[in-house]
Amino acid sequence: MKTTTIGIDLAKSVFQVHGVDAAGQVAVRKKLRRAEVLRFFEALPPCLVGMEACATAHYWARQISALGHDVRLMPPSYVKAYVRRQKNDAADAEAICEAVTRPTMRFVPVKSAERQGVLVLHRARELLVRQRTMLINAIRGHCAEFGMIAPQGARRAAELVEQIRQAEARLLPDLARSALLMLADQLDALAAQIHALERRLLAWHRQDQASQRLATIPGVGIITATALAATVVDPSAFRSGREFARLPGPGPAPELLRW
Questions:
Q1: What's the DSSP call for residue 100?
Q2: CA 200 → CA 172, 193, 194, 195, distances in Å?
Q3: Residue 176 to residues 135, 152, 173: CA-CA distances in angstroms?
Q4: How far is Cα 242 from Cα 171, in angstroms, rounded to an integer?
Q5: Which residues of 102-191 form beta strands (DSSP E)?
Q6: CA torsion, points 23, 25, 31, 36, in degrees to nearest 10?
Q7: CA distance 216 to 13
Q8: Rounded distance between C-alpha atoms, residue 237 and residue 243, angstroms
Q9: Among 10, 65, 68, 221, whose CB has the most other CB atoms within 10 angstroms?
């Protein structure tokens, strides 16, 4: 039997594959180790391949598409309705295989490696900003124990660090000063790393037309513009601005934009 449609349940090591022929009869149902996935699809004639838009999905979509297959990503929440029995890898692969053929199914555009790289910049920056906030809060809290107070805000943290360096021994013991200065050094290093990431984002923004157009919207800066341009590959997936705006989370729904 010639396999025409395949559903693949992605995993870290063991992948479950479920394939059917043109009549809907099961043609293949097997498990594949990670190293076997591309060899399996190389041996197949071009067919429709469905998978959930989860972690590593865009990578596998690019790799399998390069072998001549038509790969389509779907939001996991949309596939859930097609699971017919107790949830497991085999049942998930079968549900994916059926869902990918539905005419009303909504698909997630496959992101290029470059756009995923931009999103990595954003996520790395977000992590560093959180760490910076944690350090500032720690420094403020420790200094407050010795009566050293500074206005709130990341930009005013430099004033507090300067107070630490100039504080007299009677106000700030040497033991506390040495620990706080270590935290201050980490804070300076984080600031430099965040600035370096922002320069990379600015360089990408200057060579991406979609990001530049988004930045012309009042209230939209480079950070937001580059994030939207890298995340939303195909704006036509949303029928209206209202649909885009009403989706949950910061921006478009994660299940539609999963990277």
A1: T
A2: 40, 11, 10, 9
A3: 15, 21, 5
A4: 57
A5: none
A6: -30
A7: 44
A8: 10
A9: 10
Q: How many of the other CB atoms lie within 10 Å of CB of 27?
A: 18
User: Which helix (DSSP H) or strand (DSSP E) does residue 62 occupy?
Assistant: helix 57-65
What is the pTM (predicted TM-score) of this model? 0.81
What string of DSSP letters covers 168-195? -TTTS-HHHHHHHHHHHHHHHHHHHHHH
CB neighbour list of residue 111: distance below 8 Å, 6 or more residues apart: 58, 119, 230, 233, 259
Copy the structure tokens of residue 152.
Answer: 């709130």
Q: What string of pLDDT tens digits covers the 259 residues of the chain?
A: 689 999 999 999 999 999 999 988 999 999 999 999 999 999 999 999 999 998 899 999 999 999 999 999 999 989 998 998 788 899 999 999 999 999 989 898 999 999 999 999 999 999 999 999 999 999 999 988 888 888 887 778 888 888 888 877 677 888 898 999 999 999 999 999 999 999 999 999 999 999 999 999 999 999 999 999 998 877 877 778 777 765 544 334 343 344 3
SS3 content of the chain, % helix, strand, coil (to 5): 55, 10, 30
Is residue 257 within 8 A of residue 108, CB to CB? The reply is yes
Place of tokens 């479920």: 18
The span from the CA of 15 to the CA of 148, in Å, is 57
Backbone angles phi, psi at 48, to 5 degrees: -85, 125
Q: Give the integer Cα–Cα distance in Å for 240 and 220.
A: 19
CA atoms of 58 and 111, how far apart (whole Å) = 6
